[in-house]
């Protein structure tokens, strides 16, 4: 192994919907974390790995830090806030604005007590005029003592290489944590479940997605045929939601399934036979048992 190799852990934090998952997918060069324009898309801490000749970066994509309204929300915020303590570098993503609201102030307060280098990433610069960017940088300079401030557009892959370069600058020297070809530590079942949830998030009305979870009931290759059979259940909180998820004549469920199948085939590099069902579990987001059952394990909060 190269003695000049650097490796370490980097967490992406920020308020919901600032583009953390989109940035992470671009930095590792592959789609692992799901994205949508709805807040709280990411619920678990997702670990992905980027390796090149300089060394290895292990990214932790965390749920957005927000005011929790139920047990699932509390779980998500705990994971995000605890990840700050366990890493070598912190990437804080914000939107391009000179107004620094209560949500950002809450995050800044935690970062002031932490001894790790904090790189501020001002995302979505494709949505503003270029000559306004220095104003946003100046506004945030007052908030925290940043190691670096980098304006980027994760969606357009604009300046994302600079983020990788900066991270390596602050990582410690040391051996790699994963094999060179590892991209994520997530089980395939979990990634497929999240792909289905992403398609549901993108297709359904505003109020429904927060109340859904996806369980993979079965995922098994059919002999040596190169076909993967996957049975999955979408869990929702109300009977009325179940009808909307299924859609007229099953049209919405078919749309979600078709889109998720295409992503799964891409990732697994084989044909996928995906069957979807919908079940109602009332108030599951406030049940410790059901939260754990649907893959949001409290052990993650202690990592």
Describe the 3D structure.
With 303 residues, this protein is α/β, with parallel strands linked by helices. It has 9 helices and 9 strands. The strands form 2 sheets. A 6-stranded mixed β-sheet has the order 2-3-1-4-5-6, sandwiched between helices. Strands 7-8-9 form a 3-stranded mixed β-sheet. Helix 4 links the parallel strand 5 and strand 6 (148-151). The model is unreliable at 36-43 and 298-303 (pLDDT under 50).
Structure at a glance:
With 303 residues, this protein is an alpha/beta fold. Helix content is 33%, strand content 22%. Helix 6 (188-203) packs antiparallel against helix 8 (251-268).
Question: SSE layout and pairings?
Answer:
Layout: E1 6-13, H1 20-28, E2 46-52, E3 55-61, H2 71-83, E4 89-94, H3 102-112, E5 118-122, H4 133-141, E6 148-151, H5 160-170, H6 188-203, E7 213-221, E8 227-236, H7 239-246, H8 251-268, E9 271-280, H9 288-293
